[in-house]
Amino acid sequence: MSSTRYDLFISHASEDKEEFIRPLATFLMQLGMKVWYDEHSLTIGDSLSASIDKGLQESNYGLIILSPSFLSKPWPEYEFRSLLTLETGARKRILPVWYHVDREEVMRFSPHLADRYAFDATGKDPLLTAFEALRVAKPTAYAELYRRHAAEKLSVPLEKLASNPILGPPLTQPQLRRIRFIREALMDVFPQSWNETVTSFRRDTPQHREGEIEVWECIAGTYLRISRKFTLGRKKRQALFKILIHDTLGSSIPDGPDQPTWVRAAAAEFRSTLPNE
Asked: What is the pTM of this model?
């Protein structure tokens, strides 16, 4: 939606702000999401109702934190009803999160909402809710998490997902064979167990999985070719891996005349089209 300014609108009760909402909003912004959140999006003198309506209109998704306090207040319910009216057809905009509530309590509030899949955040680190919101609202950015982790460009600990993985359906055998090549090719610069590697790809939404495998195949292929062609030592191999990862995240490989030959060769190799003959 080109008219939107925010990825996410957080609808919540003020009683939950200190313990859950504030750290959740911080993690979401660290993950690169544009968040409408009253502490950051309202200024002195703003009309509260007008600002909330504008935030709802300008957000791709509404993250509703369903808690006992939320379910008992009229103002959060107003936000929910407003979000509900903005949903059209198959366009999902409401992302429900259960926080110290169960299905029976949500059912009394809204049978429609109780019938939706919700992330249960009760007793969990707010970071896990942030990861799940990113997975749904910005799946491409979520797929990049593994690469950002490999490039040490992640401001939040990806290891948090290890204890509470949100996994999609199993990978196909052809996909597993390709992932095995990637893992073996990069083992000396990015050592991971087989289970860790498979889990990282299973976290991606199915529609983004194939593209992410292709990105890693390009990284692995160029890494093998350049490191062998120039007989790179360990430090240069590590540097090569990092610049390839950074290129996939938007930081192009430097290829000016002042760069080492192997770096310029890596840039040319990574951007080339393989001959089909």
From this structure: 0.79
